[in-house]
Amino acid sequence: MQKAEYRNLIETELLPKIKLTTPSPFDPIIVNNQSPIWKTIGSGNYAGVFSLDSHPEWVVKVYGRNPEELKKEIDVYKKLGSHESYSCLYDYGDNYLILKKLNGVTLFDAVVKGIQIPEAVINDIDSGLDYARSVGLNPFDVHGKNVVMYEGRGYIVDISDFYKQGYCRKWKDLKKAYYKIYLPYLYKYHPPIPFFIVDAVRKGYRIYRRLKKKVNKEK
After folding, report:
1. Which pLDDT score, from 0 to 100, does residue 128 have?
2. Which of the residue ranges 22-31, 97-106, 114-123 would you say has the lowest mean pLDDT?
3. Alpha-carbon distance 210 to 193, whole Å?
4. pLDDT tens digits, residue range 155-188?
């Protein structure tokens, strides 16, 4: 399939048949997909992600909120270029990106499903983040839902906030939990952990960080 044909399928068979809603600024986009050929494979804070069986090596990321952020994400991909820790940008439209598909399971889902997360995955992510810094980017909002592992290696699937300034400690805090809790107590006999528990921890962490930031500002 040529790129022009793929773009045509996005414009005619995907975009008119999906609805992206944002009931809460702190939860991922909710996707309603009525397309018979496009599959929903994920959603994040800004967008839904879709794939086509006839072209499995590509995915389409469609922005559902803050479409002005799309241009910033394009710039981030251009700075990253080609690196094994990241996807790469093939093409884009007014509100979507065409990206190389990264296979794997998120670290969030791995904990829910009881899949072991080897230390090599953590090291791969660290290496990828170091590379991003070396090309002038600021790894921001890196957490268990936008990092995946595949065949024992780690990959970063969402770089949309790497243009932001300031310090984000989410990955540092996740690593701390990995080495202090996960590795010594869960890794060897990793039981599945119900989704509602893991999601409650995720939401609790976000509330905690917001409250702590507010308190620090008031001091």
Report:
1. 98
2. 22-31
3. 25
4. 999 999 999 999 999 999 999 999 999 999 999 9
- Three-state SS string over the chain comes to CCHHHHHHHHHHHHHHHEEEECCCCCCCCEEEECCCCEEEEEECCCEEEEEECCCCCEEEEEECCCCCHHHHHHHHHHHHCCCCCECCEEEECCCEEEEECCCCEEHHHHHHHCCCCCHHHHHHHHHHHHHHHHCCCCCCCCCCCCEEEECCEEEECCCCCCCCCCCCCHHHHHHHHHHHHHHHHHCCCCCCCCHHHHHHHHHHHHHHHHHHHHHHHHC
Domain chopping of the chain, boundaries: 3-100, 105-210
- At residue 208, does pLDDT exceed 80? no
Give the separation between CA 77 and CA 61, rounded to whole angstroms. Answer: 13
Residue 106 confidence (pLDDT): 95
pLDDT for position 79: 96
Pick the CATH number of 105-210 from 1.10.3470, 2.60.120, 1.10.1740, 1.10.510: 1.10.510
Residue 142: predicted pLDDT: 96
CATH 2.40.10.170 fits 3-100, yes or no: no
